Amino acid sequence: MIGATSTMTGGVTAPRGFRAAGVSAGIKADGGLDLALLVADVPATAAAVFTINRAQAAPVVVSREHLGRSGGVARAVVVNSGCANACTGEAGMQGARDMTEQTARLVGCPPEQVLVASTGVIGVELPIAKIRAALPAAMRALAPDQGARAARAIMTTDPFPKESAARTTIAGVDVAVGGMAKGSGMIEPMLATMLAFVTTDAAVPQPLLARALRETVDETFNAITVDGECSTNDTVLLLASGASGAAVDESTYPAFAAALRAVSVELALGIVRGGEGATKLVTIRVSGAADAAEARRAAKAIANSPLVKTAIHGGDPNWGRLIAVAGRAGVAFDLSRAGVTIGETTLFDNGKPYDHNAPRAAEYLKGNDLIVGVHLGAGQASSTVWTCDLSADYVRINADYRT
Amino acid sequence: MIGATSTMTGGVTAPRGFRAAGVSAGIKADGGLDLALLVADVPATAAAVFTINRAQAAPVVVSREHLGRSGGVARAVVVNSGCANACTGEAGMQGARDMTEQTARLVGCPPEQVLVASTGVIGVELPIAKIRAALPAAMRALAPDQGARAARAIMTTDPFPKESAARTTIAGVDVAVGGMAKGSGMIEPMLATMLAFVTTDAAVPQPLLARALRETVDETFNAITVDGECSTNDTVLLLASGASGAAVDESTYPAFAAALRAVSVELALGIVRGGEGATKLVTIRVSGAADAAEARRAAKAIANSPLVKTAIHGGDPNWGRLIAVAGRAGVAFDLSRAGVTIGETTLFDNGKPYDHNAPRAAEYLKGNDLIVGVHLGAGQASSTVWTCDLSADYVRINADYRT
Hints:
Two copies of one chain form a homodimer. With 403 residues, chain A is an alpha+beta fold. Chain A folds into two domains: 6-273, L-amino peptidase D-ALA esterase/amidase; 281-399, Ubiquitin-like (UB roll), CATH 3.10.20. Helix content of chain A is 33%, strand content 26%. Chain A has helices at residues 58-70, 89-107, 128-141, 147-153, 206-219, 253-273, 292-304, 306-313, 319-328, 358-364, 392-399; strands at residues 6-7, 18-23, 35-50, 73-81, 114-119, 162-170, 173-182, 195-200, 235-240, 281-289, 339-342, 345-349, 352-353, 369-375, 381-388. In chain A, strands 1, 2, 3, 4, 5, 6, 7, 8 and 9 form a nine-stranded mixed beta sheet that branches. Chain A starts with 5 loop residues before the first strand and ends with a helix. The relative contact order of chain A is 0.14. The mean pLDDT of chain A is 89. The interface between A and B is large, with 67 and 68 residues.
C-alpha cells in the first residue's frame, strides 16, 4: 500500500455494494474454476480501458459497445477463463453477446449494463452452452465474501490469484477500493493489462472515474511487462457503487486516486511476480533520458530484453547487456555519460566500467525483489517499469500451452 | 545456393588472393581458438556495414575510422572472440588500435589498412597482452587452406562454424565469393549482423562493392533475428582482392550480386540455425501489408515474439498468437481479412478460424525447417524474415554466460 491510504484484506467485494462468485463451468479441462461473476447491488458507474491490439477479442468489442450504450453504467461483469474468444469470427461475437444477455436476464438488468471478458486460448470456439448452463449456479453463489473465489476463476497460467484492497477517507466517510487481476503471459499492456477488475464504494461521477482510471493505468498496468506481448483481450474495468455514501469530486479526487493507485500497483506487481515462469520481480529505473517518452521506451526495451531477463534469472551481473539494449532502443543515448547500477552497486559510470564490483552485484542478484538503474546520459527525464526474469519454465509453460 | 551461381566448398579463402589463420591466444578460459587473421596478398577493395547500436564497441569505431582513412582499402582483418571490447572506455579504444597496429607491423602495411572486430562478453577489459603475444603465431599460420580454422576462432556460443562459398562467371572468368560468420546471441542486426566476413577474387570498384554489400545485407543479415537484440559489435566486411582477374562493372554486377547474395543468405541462415538454443529454422512470410516497411515490421515482431517462438519450439500450432502479434505490431491490420498458414495448412482465413486443421499443422511443426505465413489483410506488400525457436537451452546459455 502506498501513500495516505491504508491497507485492508479482500478484493473486488471489499467495497460495499458488490457481490461476486466463482464457479466451474467445465471450460477448463481440469474442472477448475473458470466462470466469475461480479454484480453490483444497484447500477454502478463504470469506466474501462481496453487493449489497443488491432485483433480485438469479441468480449472487448462487446464490452466497449455496452459501455457506450449504457453511458458508463454497469450492473454486472461476467468473465470466463479457459477460452479467450478471440479470432473466433461471427460465432465468437454471438457468444460474447449471449454471455451478457444470459447474465442480464438472471440479474434483471438491460444487457448493455453487463460487461464481459474472456481469457485463455485464442482461436478456439467459445463453449457457450457450458457457460449458459453454469450461469444460474454462479448467480446463486453470489455473495460479498466470494471475491477470492472470483479471483481464482479468472486465472489461466497464473501461479496465484491477485487481489488487493485499500481504504481511505473521503469527506469523513470510510471508502474502500478493491480489485482482482490475472496475468500471466501475453503481458505488455498498451492501454490496459490482461484482465483487471477494480471496484469502489465511493460515488464517482463517470468523467472523474474515467480520468482516475486513465491516469492510474499509465503508471501501473501500463508500466509492467512479462513478455512484451500485448494481448487481444486486455481489459481493465473500474466500477463505483456509491454504497459508502461518500461522493468524490475535484476536492476529494486526490484521496480517491491515491487509493486507486495503491490497489492498481499491487495488482500490477502481482501480475509481474506471477508472470509465466517468473522467479524475480525487477524494477527497471531509467534516468537521464531526453524526455519521458524516451525514458519509458528505453525502460520497456530493457524490461523485454531476453538477454537481460535471462542474466537476471541466472544472477549474472552482465551489465553490458543493459547498455547494449539502451543503445539499440532508438532513444538519445551518450555512452560517455551513461551508467548502470544494480541495487546500490555501480558497474558503469560516465562511460567507465567498474567490473570489479560485479561480485557484489552478483550477491545482490540472489534476492528476488531487484532494482536496476540505467542512466542514458542524454537528459533529465526518467521512468520506472516492472518486469520479471525469463526462466526455462517460461519456455516449458508456453511450448505446449494448448496441449 | 541460390540463383545462377554454383556452390563450392570453403569460406573466406575460397576466393584467390586471401590467406587466413585461427589460433588460441588464451582469451577464452577453455583454451579454444579465439584469434582469427584474414590477410589479402595485395591491398583489397573493402566495404563494411556496422551496428547502429549507439553503444558502439571500440573495434567498430576503429574499423569505421580506418575504412574512412584508407578510402576503402584493406590488407588485413584481425578478430578476437572471448571479449567484445565494448563499454570498455578509453582503454578499450587503445586496445583496438593496438590490435591493428601490431597486425599492420607484422603484415607490413599502414595501420589504417587493418580492420578489427571483437566478440564476447561486454564490459570486460581486452587482454591485449595475450593478443600481442599470439599475433606472430597467427601470422606464421596464415595459409589459403586455413579459412575453416579462422571460422572456428570467431565463435562464441555458436554451436557450429558458419562458412559459405559460391562461384560465378564474370566476363568469361571464374569468380569466387566466400565468407564466414558467427552468431549466435544478441542477434537482430539493424544494419549488419554480429560478425560476418565475405571475400571475393573479383575486382570491384569500391562504390559498386559498397552498393552490393548494402543491397545484400538488407535482404539477408538484416532479415534474421534470434532474440531481437542488436549487438554493440555487429560488423559485416566485404573484401575484393581482384586476384581472379575479373572486373565487375555495371554490366556484370548482377552476376556478382547474385553470388554475394547466395553466400550471405547461407551465412545468415547459418546464424539463425545456430542461434542460442535453437532447434528449428523458421521462415516468417508476411503478406497483405500496406507497404514493405510495415511488412518487415510485422514479420520482425512475429519473429521476435517469445510466445510464437516457444509455441513453435513445442510444436504447438497456436496460430492465435501469430494474429495477436500482428495485431499489436503497430501496422495496418484488418482482422476480418487476415489469415494464417503453417506450412501448407490454413488455420485462419478472412477472419475465420479453421482450428480443426490444427492437428495437421502440429504434425508439420515436428520438422525443423518451417514456413509460417501471416496475411495482414491490409494491402499488397510482403516481407520474409528468418528466426529460430526459443528453447529452455536459450535460458540456460544466457543465465550464466559470464560464469
